[in-house]
Design goal:
Strand 2 and strand 3 form a beta hairpin. Helix 1 crosses helix 11, helix 10 packs across helix 11 and helix 13 crosses helix 14. The radius of gyration is 20 Å and the shape is globular. It has two domains: 203 residues, Transposase IS200-like (Alpha-Beta Plaits); 80 residues, Chromosomal Replication Initiator Protein Dnaa, Chain: A, CATH 1.10.1750.10. It has a five-stranded mixed sheet, sandwiched between helices. By secondary structure, it is α+β, with helices and mostly antiparallel strands.
Length: 318
């Protein structure tokens, strides 16, 4: 069977699912689930992914995400690859964890964002895992319901904005939108997918095909932080920003540049290693050690915050 067409362009929205190989469980406990969420965070930080909704189930997950840089494959390679490495190392196993390629449906935001978010959040009830959505901790629904603060990598304001400009009203109306549909015979938005790839009007599909071919479309929202996600800084630019705060002569200068390039630049280990004259594995180890050092030393944490502010990477405002 031919692979479905993968259309990627800046600003695209996708409903993404990935299932365990042979439908086996990919999340065995809460430690696994927390680790997976940490890779959603790093996908946001390193590759600019905007996570609008998520739901983790025993043998698969659902995401509704936006790609300001048009790099869906890079984002999912990071999430699934990093989690597979963690899972296999922990269980002393090898081989594939997820079943084939992830499935991504390109969606017309204005028409399907609300429906897809409800579809994703209803999964624990539809699967018979819980009867009350509020009691399920491993989805973004409690954040949408106003019961939990958002982590920095989760963006729920776009979809809640369809319900009200007032935050409290939006939470209340969204809960009614989702919970009021439990037990109802709702239409499944994924039944309307075209060519196993796209979900939207005829006009949207035609535009998407054109944008995917050109790969030059840009999000028109005049939001500095979103623009910062669209354009990743070069390795030289990252060095310059660090140098403006930390002198080159400082013993931590090179370590800081390497760490920031790895965590926030969206570059491969080979690209960073080539720039700094290191092997890829050494880049990963050095970045991890320096992350631990930052966590221990307040002064280094302050420098990190200043550099990220310069690049607009601390919080994506939409």
């Amino acid at each position: 069977m031919a692979r479905p067409l993968r259309i990627q362009y800046p600003g695209a929205w996708y409903h993404v699912t990935s299932r365990g190989n042979e439908r086996k469980a990919v999340f065995w406990n809460d430690t696994d689930r927390k680790k997976f969420l940490s890779y959603l965070q790093s996908a946001h930080e390193r590759y600019g992914a905007i996570i609008h909704c998520f739901c983790l189930l025993p043998n698969h997950y659902h995401l509704l995400l936006e790609t300001p840089r048009g790099n869906l494959s890079q984002i999912l390679h990071h999430i699934n690859g990093a989690y597979t490495t963690y899972f296999n190392t922990k269980r002393k196993r090898s081989g594939h964890l997820f079943q084939g390629r992830f499935k991504a449906i390109l969606a017309e935001k204005e028409v399907y964002a609300q429906e897809l978010s409800r579809y994703i959040h209803l999964n624990p009830v539809r699967s018979g895992i819980v009867e009350d959505l509020i009691s399920y901790a491993w989805s973004s629904y409690p954040n949408y319901a106003g019961l939990q603060e958002n982590p920095l990598w989760l963006e729920n304001r776009v979809i809640l904005g369809y319900f009200s400009a007032d935050k409290a009203k939006a939470h209340k109306r969204y809960r009614a939108f989702v919970e009021g549909s439990i037990g109802q015979d709702l239409r499944n938005p994924l039944k309307e997918v075209v060519a196993s790839t796209m979900l939207g009007s005829k006009e949207f599909i035609e535009r998407a095909l054109g944008r995917g071919e050109r790969s030059q479309a840009r999000d028109k929202r005049d939001i500095p932080a979103l623009k910062a996600l669209q354009r990743r800084p070069t390795l030289i630019e990252m060095e310059k920003q660090v140098e403006a705060i930390l002198p080159k002569e400082n013993a931590n200068f090179r370590k800081f540049c390497l760490y920031l390039s790895h965590r926030f630049g969206g570059y491969s280990l080979q690209e960073i290693g080539g720039y700094y004259g290191m092997k890829g594995a050494a880049v990963s180890q050095a970045a991890r050690r320096f992350r631990q050092l930052i966590d221990r030393e307040t002064e280094l944490k302050k420098i990190e915050q200043k550099v990220l502010e310069k690049f607009g990477m601390l919080k994506v405002e939409t």
